Each structure stands twice: as structure tokens, then as C-alpha cells.
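[09:14] KT: can someone run the structure on this one? pasting the chain below
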Amino acid sequence: MLKQGLYQKMLQKLSPQQIQLMKLLQVPTAELEQRIKEEMEMNPALEEGKEENEDEIVFTEDNSDNNDDAPSENDELNNEIDVSDYIQDEDIPYYKTSSNNSSADDEHAVIPISSRKTFQENLIGQLGLASLGDTKAEIAKQIIGSMDDDGYLRREVSAIADDLMFSKNVKTTEEEIEEVLRIIQGFEPAGVGARDLQECLLIQLKRINSDNEEIKTAIKIIQNHMNEFSKKHYSKLEKIYNLNDEELKAVIGHILKLNPRPGNSMSDSHRLVQHIVPDFILNNNDGNLELSLNARNVPELKVSRSYKEMLTTYSQGKKKDKSTKEAAQFVKQKLDSAKWFIDAIKQRQETLMNTMSAIINYQYNYFLDGDERLLKPMILKDIAEMVNLDISTISRVANSKYIQTPFGTFLLKSFFSESLSTDSGEEVSSREVKNILQECVDNEDKRKPLPDDKLAKILNDKGYNIARRTVAKYREQLNIPVARLRKQL
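[09:31] RB: done, C-alpha cells below
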């Protein structure tokens, strides 16, 4: 049964300005410039550059044609749009509506972008030397286009035959595709066109001098005992091929020199190095920590004065038809959006500085010397309580921001860690335990790597109360494989 009635309830909603601020908090400095440019493209009332000192613009309203007793269309428009919000006031300097994000000493350099050939284009260029007919050339192009970025052919031969029939009206057989594929597998770089890792390694091994006994043994191992090799069951391989440790080490050495991702062999030499742009810069000035926000390459922002004058012109005009009102509303909307965006940028800077200052105060001894043993356990809640912000806001700041210190550049998230207790009852950071764990793995005997239970015992002997499963969790976080996969001859 449907029933109609009045109900009162409380809801918590985020305003558009709050949503915009939350999104800007997540944006690191390296991407903030692009985000500002996107906003300027969408909103012509938002401009870049410093505001020049100009005389106050005074606007007068002409109401001579209006009836004093009856409300005019002019009054209706002025009631909808408060022009005084956008006209310069003597108590509020115009620079207050601009955002200065850079220094006069900053250099604005443009990084050139280099172009390079992909490995698919390189393979297409080698087709001309293969002397293939028209049909086989189309098959070869289809095969090359079906390879992934690593140089592997992941599609089934039957699927390639179907693609050729439906897209290019080329009728072929699986045998003919296999024949063309073998030709492509002879191209450079060695190993392209393989269906899996085993085939990729075999293609590369067979190109090496086949009279070498070690190469012959390597081919047999990959061809017949790939599973034992990948799982590092070296003792089994030694028994099967009647080899000692040194002989097997020499054979495996040839295999380890091969490229498991031949498609990336060209791009590796042209790979662009991704530079980390710090969001904060921390300097130690004779024991005094000085924190600054990195605003390099971020343009200054201001609200367009021409749009303000346009809004005033609309409000003072005598003609108040529907199109004029719509134009005035559009200008007002763009001005509001520009002011909100500049305010959001200012709030972003203030939130970032407050959060980073709280982290530095909490970890003051660490930031003085950079000794990770001085790093105290710290969670998001600790900083949220210090700056009186929500935990989710602190998480947005910490997840994607970097700080440049005298002893390195770090992700803010790395300063947050769990606490572990020692035998003396003292609480230490889990980051300190991870460093000790990494040292144990680095210094272990690679012939007999330490399993998780022995690593846990070493840490317990050092006074850290830690279980084997916790060691396994930290090892995975450090991207350290299990003991069996760390084994070396």
C-alpha cells in the first residue's frame, strides 16, 4: 500500500567544492600543472599570470528609465546575480583572488620528446628481405600485428587464419601460417614470434654455436626439463645429465644470458627514465628543519577581469531579455567556478603543508639524521588527530606525494608503519624489522637460502617478537621470493 507523507531526516553530502578539493589532494605536483591547464581550457574565466596594479573600476547603474514603484527586469536580474561579489572592493586587494604557485627564480624548461621505432615496425622492415609472395606477406603482417609488447604470439594459429579470412579475405591454412611464423622467428631480435617462454629460449639457444657441449646441454634442459629448471631443482638436473655443480652452473649461465622478453630489447635502449618530482622540500639549516612546498612549473592563477566587466555590463544593460539573462548566468557560473578552483588550490597547499608539518614533528629525530632506527611507529590516525582532519584525507595526501630530504627522496606513505614490540617491551617500527630482514637475505648463503622459519628465529634472537607468517608477509612486501627460488649454484 502506497502512503504519502512528510519525513525529516539528516544526510551528509559533499559539496562540489569539497569534491574538487578531495580530487586535487590526490594529484601530485608532477600532474598538478596539467590539471590546472585542463581547468583553464574548460573555464575561460580562469586565467594564468600575475595581476597588474590597476585603478579601481567604478560602475554606475542607470535606472532613469525605471519606474520607482514597480520592480523592473533589471532588478530581477540583480536579485539573481549579486554583482558586488565580483567588483573590486577597497578592503580586498585584487591579488587575493589570485594564486601564486611559483617563484621568480624558477626555470620553466621544456623537455623534448623523442620518437622511436617499435619492434613491430622493425619486423615489418625485415619482411622485404624475406622475398615472400603477396599472400605470405599478408600472413606475416597479421602475425606481427598479433604479437604483444614482449614479442610473443599469444593467439592460436587457427584464430589468425580466421582473422585473415574475415578482415583481409585471405584464404590460408594453419600449415602455411606455421611456415611463415618460422620465417619470422628467424628475424631480429632473436626470440620474437615464440608462443611461450620455452620456445623463446630454444630459438635463441639454437642460434648460438651448436658445437658447444654446454649449449647442447642447455637446449636439452629447456626442451625436456623446463619445469625442473624453472623451479630450480638443480640436484635433479645434475643427476639426469651427470653434471657437477660447476658444470651445471656454466650451462645455466648460458640460459640466464638469454632475453625472456625479446620484444622489449629495442625499447630498453630508448626507455624514458621517470623522474620523481618531490611535492615537498625539506632542508636542515644547522639543526632547524625548514619545510617548503614545491610549486615549480605550476602557473599562477587569477580570475578574469574581463569576465567581471562582462557580468557588470549584463547587469547594467537596459535590454533584459531571456538571452541576456542566460548569458549573465553563464558568466556568473564561470566566475564562481574560477573562484572555487583558486580556493581549492589554496586549501590544497594549506592541507599539504599542515599534514607534512605534522609528520615531521612526529618523526622529528628521524628527519634530523635520516637514521631509520629513529623512525617511530606511525599510523594515519596519529597524523589525522594532530591536524584535525579525516583519516581518508591523510591517506590521499600520503599515497602519492614525495618529500625531498638531505638524505633522499621518499614517498610519504613509507613513513607510516605498524609497531612491533621487543623483548624489553619497547615498540619499534616495522620498517626497521624489514631492513634487518633485507640484510639477512642479502648476506645469506645463496646455495642454501634461509627459509621463513629460520629468518623468524634470527629476528627473535635479535629481540624482535615476530612470527613466521609475519616474516612471510614482510618478505612479500619487499618482493623477496621464497628460499627455493633464491637458490643459486
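[09:33] KT: thanks! The chain has a mean pLDDT of 78.
[09:34] RB: yep, looked fine to me
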